[in-house]
Amino acid sequence: MKAYGFLLIFIIMFPLAGCNNGSSDENSDADPFDDENQVVWEVDNHMSVANGAFFTYFHLRVREPGVNDWEVKSNIKNFDYELGYNYTVKVEIVEIEDPMADQPAVEYHLIEVLDKQRAQEGIYFNVDVYDHQYLVKTGVEQIYEVYGEKFSCEPAMCEAIDSLKQQELSVDLMFTHSTDSSVPLVAKQINCSAPRETFGEECFQEN
């Protein structure tokens, strides 16, 4: 009888153990992110200008580590980007079902900021302003906005920008980073200006 009782207990417990193992394996395989949809990007310390469907605005400049050329991306959700800093970020690429017309088929969601470093001093970059309306004079002296980002300028530079705006000219400006986070850019030079219709030809023609 003792042997029969032991065998009965073993038969009952064996399938229960099998069910527990199956449940444990299923939980261990669960992952909120699919590795195939994740990417690590470097994000540049300044942005590029790109045309949207209805307006022009700044885009992030990103690239995979080890790649030389930058790509532009409109946005990384939940990413608190600051001009003047170089980042390394981990991003999830999310496909959008039935995107609206003129809308991207994917979104980029921040998973983690892996590194953030202040850009070195002496970095200069150009911003093309085809439409003078994207150069906005604020209520603060010597403070302007370009595509929504504040910048400062010396009095003579500010006067030149005012003159170009009054003439409704397109302009190619050179900037550097500021140490003032509330006004992150400094206009250093006017590279070229021209009427919008001939801006590309006059300012960017190959020599």
From TrEMBL:
This is DUF4377 domain-containing protein. Residues 1-17 form the signal peptide. It comes from the Bacteria. Residues 45-116 form the DUF4377 domain. Keywords: Signal. Pfam families: DUF4377. InterPro entries: DUF4377 (IPR025485).
